Write the structure tokens for this entry.
Amino acid sequence: MWQYILCKKAPHSPPPGFHHHASTITSTAMSPSHRSHVPFMVYDFCICCILSPLLCLVFCGEECCLGRLTGHGKTPKDAASVRATHPIPAACGIYYFEVKIVSKGRDGYMGIGLSAQGVNMNRLPGWDKHSYGYHGDDGHSFCSSGTGQPYGPTFTTGDVIGCCVNLINNTCFYTKNGHSLGIAFTDLPPNLYPTVGLQTPGEVVDANFGQHPFVFDIEDYMREWRTKIQAQIDRFPIGDREGEWQTMIQKMVSSYLVHHGYCATAEAFARSTDQTVLEELASIKNRQRIQKLVLAGRMGEAIETTQQLYPSLLERNPNLLFALKVRQFIEMVNGTDSEVRCLGGHSPKSQDSYPVSPRSFSSPSMSPSHGMNIHSLATSKGSSTHFSGYESSCSNGVISNKAHQSYCHSKHQSTSLNVPELNNINVSRSQQANSYSSNDVDMETEHYSNGVAETSSNGFLNEVDSSQLRRQLCGGSQAAIERMIHFGRELQAMSEQLRRECGKNTANKKMLKDAFSLLAYSDPWSSPVGNQLDPIQREPVCSVLNSAILETHNLPKQPPLALAMGQASQCLGLMARSGIGSCAFATVEDYLH
Amino acid sequence: MALLSRSRYTQEYICQIFSHCCKGPDHQTILFNHGAVQNIAHLLVSTSYKVRMQALKCFSVLAFENPQVSMTLVNVLVDGELLPQIFVKMLQRDKPIEMQLTSAKCLTYMCRAGAIRTDDNCIVLKTLPCLVRMCSKERLLEERVEGAETLAYLIETDVELQRIASITDHLIAMLADYFKYPSSVSAITDIKRLDHDLKHAHELRQAAFKLYASLGANDEDIRKKIIETENMMDRIVNGLSESSIKVRLAAVRCLHSLSRSVQQLRTSFQDHAVWKPLMKVLQNAPDEILVVASSTLCNLLLEFSPSKEPILESGAVELLCSLTQSENLALRVNGIWALMNMAFQAEQKIKSDILRGLSTEQLFQLLSDSDVNVLMKTLGLLRNLLSTRPHIDHIMSSHGKQIMQAVTLILEGEHNIEVKEQTLCILANIADGTTAKELIMTNDDILQKIKYYMSHSNAKLQLAAMFCISNLVWNEEEGSQERQDKLRDMGIVDILHKLSQSSDPNLCDKAKTALQQYLA
């Protein structure tokens, strides 16, 4: 006979000794917050017992702090095991749980181990096929067999026995009171369940799946394997021939620089590595020009420039043109597009053609014509040589609140920047958000955030929201609003035409609907669709346009570097699904600094 | 020392110089007195790995067998962290092996020097498992040697640590692998590897023997597990006759540790005729080997050991007697100890052989030895020689005069209670002889001394003196009446009456029994 006693942490919960008599209770999943804390062992926090006549149990949920089992049997027939609700996922790499022997009962016939689905639960783990166990009475290990092998010491009341499954090399070892006892099983099959079996009366054990600190230093063990896997990656043999690998890496870097239009850096890099740049310098600069316009929200100009420089591109890509126009509409609402900006009259210089900076002391890096001043990815992060005026702070580390505010006041009537210190990326963005004078945007930093520093851009989002609250539709000018409405009608017409010519396009339809929805709110910026106005939304459009231009030059749509990263991530995902444990200790992010 | 604040290369090299030059306690003290601990401690958190590593090595050299340095180290703070905590961090499994191993050494030395308790978690849960990992097959041969030696040192005197190590990661089986170099495969296929293996083979074997010796030092179950390891006894026997002194020494140590098991003495030691190579080792070996080997021999000569007979036959008496003349104290102790064991319940011939081999002069020499341990074992030998009546009479008839002289000398000298007790026990044995009794009865000086000890403040000595009296006054033996009378005249009966009222039940019983002899 068996009973399962549950103890809960919460004071209102049933007292220890509360018995479940229901036949089966299924488990609920762990909360994600728990998961992040103990990522590898939470799966089996909930224990489920599937014993038929003898009592059944199960418990789960965060409140459970103790899984307690009590044995009542007398003969081997009375043995029974409980097993976790979920198998150990291979993707966790290393899995560990501990069992405290509260009482060894009459004879201490206790088994701790693993079993596959379908194994007889009325027997101690280890006795049957696909079942593995370490038994307390003789200290033997049972590997799918009725006869054990001498393995470790016996265990009894007060001992804490741990079981660690290494899914990288498919082995298992046990621990006793925090001491590793050495490998017990090798060549384990996948999808095993943690299992505990008891046999004689009075046997009581508590299971710990990570809800309490472990006695054994499993973290240290994981550290070792993480180091091993990473060393394996680092030492992976590359390229048969000397220099081949080097050349390939250089090509990847070069193509990345070209793709994103860092022409001076690309040029310098090509020079120092004896590479040829695949695209003409002028072409890179053209793309960069268009990208800057898009990122500055000046869509009208961007479209015009594109049409000038690549005459047939948008004609051949009506969907792209449509997407650009929709974005233009959004920028009109935002008050940033050139067509409404001149009407708003906020920035007399708005018609000035890019790239000439409106102010003499603005960042020298703004001027791509002075090619040498364009930052490379690396220098834009650390260099401080451009701190000549506060506007150039976009390429520098930190800017003081005071300097920034004074700048904003001179430009804009309703600046409300309350962030005392912003890093370079944030600063460049806030300037975009707060003023029309988007000339100040530093191309390089923009792309830096675009490429990798995803988190910092997201973090910034909140800052922008607060400052956008006081903004007015189309910059507050009536003429601009009218222009915007008119443009909207044109857009609607274009959409209908597109549908006639190319058939239904749900993506386009949704895009347009979302954009028009902005007008339904008195304050579009804080509306549910307000995120469209966020400058960060310019990035996907910018990237699509850039790729389209590159395609016309027979260059890859995506830089090989990004492609390789994507493939690596996919590969890890595939490993996780196919049960290759080492993927738990490798992430692409580890290699991006 | 003053240069330690310079560049990190300077720091690295200075630490290296210190750790290479510091040999022995004198050097440690010099470095310590010049502030080495404080000056080097902060280098443990240097940004340069090489500096950290060299600083760590320095500490391992400074702390070795040095309580003063070790006690200081446990309390040193670096960046708000105690030094042991920093060492524990360096033990983490993701650190380079060299760093793990060296920090484990530091903690081991601090522990052995008494600065860290053996039950401290940093020893039990960190240092010990780390050292066991260093013994694993995955490690380089050099690391395995160092790991095993350090672990042997860590657990040498603590049975709890021995127990934990014995169950950790199948250490005992893991060590068996140390004997598999050079492997037969490498001999044929790979000359370079063979060379490498050969170079380390001796080191590996001696390290394994050392660790087995420590593991089996105290716990019978562990000894059993060690001996059950594949070919263990054969390996030890082979080790005893290896050319390398280091291996031979370690093998003898291992054998010594295992010889503490009564069961093993009776079984596997006998099966493998371990005594043979052991006796061979004892011939012309350097002192350090002799000390351990003779100590092992002591155990093999215990009366329940089946090896006792063949060892005697192979000329052990002569060998042991020569050991008692050694300059080396440990050898003198072991020699006389072995003789004492040998004499226990031995036959007449052996006893005579011992006495003849030792010579009376040497016996007196040993009785005046400055070391109390030698004295005690010599008295023990005498006591074992003087047991069973025929033996007593036989030995006393030939050496009575000298022995009585020796006894008098010791009872008159400045000795501790144990020595005097042992001496009185010898007298009691003599008093048990038939003819030997007379040597006491005719010696008034001795009788006065016995009387004196009957009233001594120490109950043990009183009891021992009572044994003498009891034997002397025992009825049914020739001349008992005369002896009783003489002792009564000396006032012994009065003392017996007094003692029969004693609160000590042993004394009281013994006194009553003696008084009864008078009544009969």
Remarks:
- Strands of chain B lie at 77-78, 81-82.
- Chain B touches chain A at residues 92-94, 124-126, 129, 164, 167-170, 174 (CB under 8 Å).
- Chain B has 34 helices and two strands.
- Chain B has a mean pLDDT of 88.
